[in-house]
């Protein structure tokens, strides 16, 4: 949440630096952080990071970790082949914290949303949202209501930028 003064890139990076992670960097003003660590246990990392964010900055929840290989495979799969991000084709990926994600979304009847794919390996729903009539917040609110708060939605452009930043 960019409006939270404790969610500045510098403060968030400081917490991860304090945890001993390497190559800590932030991307955009929405809490996206990249880092390197020897640990491969994403759930343990989420818990460790979340505890530190809560203790040091009062940020109660929302940490979701993805490995570079997971994101690279997702980008390489080209789920939005032939589409360009625009107001009418707002390309988004919703990541689930849990390993259990829906296998289908049969009752997500919204003429402004087209589910492109559910990707179990990335624990993500990929969708195209028509943003020309209003913000995507309605779509995200529906996802929150249906699946809870342990999800996060990022534009496809942001996902691609995260992968590029991890490759630096």
TrEMBL record:
Q: Name one Pfam family in it.
A: DUF1697
Please list which residues make up the signal peptide.
none
Q: Please give the InterPro entries that the UniProt record associates with this protein.
A: DUF1697
Quote the protein name from its UniProt record. Answer: DUF1697 domain-containing protein
Q: Which organism is it from?
A: Nocardia panacis
């Amino acid at each position: 949440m960019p409006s939270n003064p404790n969610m500045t890139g510098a403060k968030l990076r400081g917490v991860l630096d304090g945890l001993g992670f390497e190559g800590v960097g932030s991307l955009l003003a929405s809490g996206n952080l990249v880092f390197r660590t020897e640990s491969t246990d994403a759930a343990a990392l989420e818990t460790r990071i979340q505890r530190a964010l809560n203790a040091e900055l009062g940020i109660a929840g929302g940490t979701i970790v993805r490995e570079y290989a997971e994101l690279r495979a997702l980008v390489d799969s080209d789920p939005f082949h032939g589409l360009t991000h625009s107001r009418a084709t707002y390309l988004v990926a919703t990541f689930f914290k849990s390993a259990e994600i829906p296998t289908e979304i049969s009752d997500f009847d919204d003429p402004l949303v087209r589910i492109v794919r559910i990707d179990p390996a990335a624990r993500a729903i990929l969708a195209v949202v028509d943003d020309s009539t209003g913000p995507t917040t309605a779509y995200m609110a529906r996802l929150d209501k249906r699946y809870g708060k342990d999800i996060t939605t990022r534009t496809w452009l942001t996902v691609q930028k995260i992968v590029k930043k991890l490759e630096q």
